[in-house]
């Protein structure tokens, strides 16, 4: 009896857990973080304020805000052994693999289970340092130590370049990081929760989440957007290039979403933001043209699938505008999403049950 091709639902439409952390409303195109519109949080608040909201359920008082900034600053350094391992890693290893490997080396304070907020803060604080140190090392530049008096995002940009970052860049990247900090039960968050559900430790959960985030169908898409725009080159080539890709059955990076069946609100918010960033005009003009034609052609080739830009499309524009190199796009997404991942690990531990879905056996029947 021939074996039929195994169908994989990707758990579409399946509810894995209740959560109080965020609402991703795919029909209305709404993203709510602990009761606040994500877009408003991005326009009005700092990374650390929204991280406090995601972790603890409320925006911080001034005192709590200063406490958290101090805690994050105190946890930015990497242990000597981690830096030694970092220096041994082969040149050709990509940054997401470096992050996955190095987070796995953390030996955290406190018990393995249940995970603690201090552990979540410690991991979140160290991710920017790993990215910046590795980035400097492979360029043969001296490491730039973190500066305690700089905010989370400011310090990240400072450690990458060794100079005080432009305020406009800090502001744009801070808004981006808030918009991407948390997004419900996406593949990498689900991974973190599955690992946590076995009463494993938070380091294992975040290492696994980084592995899931790395994939181009998930967090690996922004660099694909840049490559697509570079290949298209100019407005006259847009239709032919996209038509060709869709005829070859290729996926357009930065388009489509499992949940959003209308515009991704983060993409709309980022698109509004980049308009104000200088020196983006010709590249942005092309991006706007690609979005317009891609949405039309996706409807022609995939009628009724309601495929629009997702967060990655304009994330690429923001990261390019703040002069982050392409190989730092997914790592920067990881930097912000670590807050959401760790919040879900903490929430899972409050009322845990091991994840163990079913599968349908289509193999041979035993004699
Ligand atoms: C993120 O889940 C989250 O919340 C993720 C995220 C987060 O914040 O955590 O929002 C971040 O991961 C955004 C997505 C980034 N990925 C990309 O931009 C890669 C391109 N996108 C696609 O691969 C796809 O749209 C997914 C992965 C995002 C969603 O996949 P689904 O829900 O499994 O959709 P599908 O593959 O079932 O597609 C439905 C149809 C298919 O055609 P048919 O089989 O019905 O003929 O639409 C087509 C697909 O071929 N399609 C696309 C497409 N996306 C879907 N066709 C061309 N280009 C695309 N981008």
In short:
The chain is mostly helical and 367 residues long. The chain contains 16 helices and three strands. A three-stranded antiparallel β-sheet has the order 1-2-3.
Structure characterization notes:
β1 (22-25) and β2 form a beta hairpin. The protein has a three-stranded antiparallel beta sheet with strand order 1-2-3. The protein is an all-alpha fold. The longest helix has 22 residues, at 117-138. 44% of the residues are buried. The chain is 55% helix and 3% strand. S-citryldethia Coenzyme A (SDX) binds at residues 10, 183, 186, 217-219, 221, 251-259, 298, 302, 305, 307, 310-312. It catalyses: oxaloacetate + acetyl-CoA + H2O = citrate + CoA + H(+).
Assign an overall shape: globular
Structural class: mainly alpha
Radius of gyration using CA atoms only: 21 Å
Strand content: under 5%
The profile of the biggest β sheet is: 3 strands, antiparallel
Distance between the termini: 13 Å
The helix/strand order is EEEHHHHHHHHHHHHHHHH
Hetero groups: s-citryldethia Coenzyme A
Q: Portion of residues in helices?
A: 55-70%
Figure out the total of helices.
16
Family: Belongs to the citrate synthase family.
InterPro entries: Citrate_synth-like_lrg_a-sub, Citrate_synth-like_sm_a-sub, Citrate_synthase, Citrate_synthase_AS, Citrate_synthase_bac-typ, Citrate_synthase_sf
Pfam family, one: Citrate_synt
Keywords: Acyltransferase, Transferase
């Amino acid at each position: 009896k021939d074996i039929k091709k195994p169908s994989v639902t990707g758990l579409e439409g399946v509810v894995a857990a209740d959560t109080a952390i965020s609402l991703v409303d795919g029909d209305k195109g709404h993203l709510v973080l602990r009761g606040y519109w994500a877009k408003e949080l991005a326009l009005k608040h700092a990374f650390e304020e929204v991280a406090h909201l995601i972790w603890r359920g409320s925006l911080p008082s001034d005192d709590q805000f200063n406490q958290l900034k101090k805690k994050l600053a105190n946890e930015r350094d990497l242990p000597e052994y981690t830096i030694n391992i970092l220096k041994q890693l082969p040149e050709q290893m990509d940054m997401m693999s470096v992050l996955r490997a190095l987070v796995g080396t953390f030996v955290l304070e406190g018990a393995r289970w249940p995970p603690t907020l201090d552990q979540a803060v410690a991991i979140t604080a160290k991710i920017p340092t790993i990215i910046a140190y590795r980035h400097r090392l492979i360029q043969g530049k001296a490491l730039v130590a973190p500066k305690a008096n700089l905010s989370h995002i400011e310090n990240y940009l400072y450690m990458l370049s060794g100079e005080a970052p432009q305020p406009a860049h800090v502001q744009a990247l801070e808004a981006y990081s808030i918009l991407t900090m948390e997004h419900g039960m996406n593949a990498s968050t689900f991974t973190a929760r599955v690992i946590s559900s076995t009463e494993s430790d938070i380091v294992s959960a975040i290492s696994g989440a980084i592995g899931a985030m790395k994939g181009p169908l998930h967090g690996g898409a922004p660099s694909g957007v840049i490559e697509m725009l570079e290949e298209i080159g100019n407005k006259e080539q847009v239709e032919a290039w996209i038509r060709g890709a869709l005829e070859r059955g290729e996926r357009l990076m930065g388009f489509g979403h499992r949940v959003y069946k209308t515009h991704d609100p983060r993409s709309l918010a980022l698109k509004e933001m980049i308009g104000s960033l200088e020196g983006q005009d010709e590249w942005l003009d092309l991006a706007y043209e690609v979005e317009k034609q891609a949405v039309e052609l996706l409807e022609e080739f995939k009628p009724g699938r309601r495929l629009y830009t997702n967060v990655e499309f304009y994330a690429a524009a923001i990261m390019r505008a703040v002069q982050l190199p392409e190989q730092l796009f997914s790592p920067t997404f990881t930097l912000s999403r670590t807050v959401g991942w760790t919040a879900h690990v903490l929430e899972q531990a409050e009322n845990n049950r091991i994840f163990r879905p079913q599968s349908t056996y289509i193999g041979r029947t035993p004699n």
